[in-house]
Amino acid sequence: MESISKFIALELFSVGGVSITIGQVAAASLTIAVVLVLAGWLIRRLSQRLLERGSDANQVQLTQKVLWFAVIVILFFTALSMLNVPLGAFAFITGAIAIGIGFGAQNIINNFISGWILMGERPIRIGDLLEVNGTLGRVEAINTRSTRIKRVDGVRIVIPNSHLLENMVVNWNLGDEDIRIFVTVGVAYGSPVRRVAELIEQAVTEQEGVLEDPEPRILFQDFGNSALIFEAYFWTQLKPGGDLRRLRSEIRFRIDELFRENGITIAFPQQDVHLDGILKLESGDQAVGQAIPNTPEES
User: Fold this and answer.
1) Is a pLDDT exceeding 70 seen at residue 190?
2) Which of 47, 48, 142, 211 is least crowded, fewest Cβ atoms below 10 Å from its Cβ?
3) Is residue 231 predicted with pLDDT exceeding 90?
4) Which listed CATH number (3.40.1130, 1.10.10, 3.30.300, 1.10.287) goes with 18-112?
5) Does the pLDDT value for residue 279 go beyond 70?
6) Cα atoms in the 13 Å half-sphere on the side-chain side of 266
7) How confident is residue 297, by pLDDT bands cut at 50, 70 and 90?
8) CA atoms lying within 13 Å on the CB side of residue 258
9) Model pTM above 0.70
């Protein structure tokens, strides 16, 4: 026992004139390990309870971050107290570390602060559909340094939090879930335009997922080079798991069916070539000249 006591009392190092023994380091380490395990278990249980009661996932995640930050700060000062280390002993070291971090870790600090801003102000929430630099995906997690997004093709990407605050980001779920989308279709010249508009409206209103209010609008958009252009504008709700491309596809399928039933042709690109002059044909040693009338021919 005497040898164990001597080993525990053995000095490892000193800080600011205060001796740090093996026993103090072991006690502080054990305390930190136990507190971290208990804190992790309690925070997980609390998060599960909050989610079961219907709390917002973003609020739960913010609560987790705040609790962990508080636990780390408390453990830091508790360990210093157990080691009998005065805070003044770290004044110089803390200042040097702060300067080093300020110059060498600006991006990390920027992303860290941006993460807390995102979780506090909540311009972006878990489950939101974002469009960042042409990339479309849903937010899966907002961490202190980065945000994880799952693209529509299933690929997960990690975006620094500062990028989400400093650049233009389209949040399709911000405010409400109602969004307006459109489908474009072109019909051949000579088609009954009023009837075309009625059929397009029928195809849109029949589709499940299209909102009745605001009501869909069918516009005769333009006289195109090869078609009469129509656009159907309608509103739908953007929900998790919803697919706007599938909705547009089903409407196009229905438009094609209705047009076939009513004898309306969907236009395709075509070009008219007009020939004017004398066409010279060569056959063997003889050349035959034939005048071409000044009438257009379609080729």
Assistant:
1) yes
2) 48
3) yes
4) 1.10.287
5) no
6) 14
7) very low
8) 19
9) no
Burial 137-166 (b: 16+ CB within 10 A, else e): bbbeebbbbbbbbeeeeeeeeebbbbbbbe
Give the list of residues 6+ apart from residue 194 with CB closer than 8 angstroms, or none: none
CATH class of segment(s) 125-171: mainly beta
- Output 238 or 250, whichever has higher pLDDT: 250
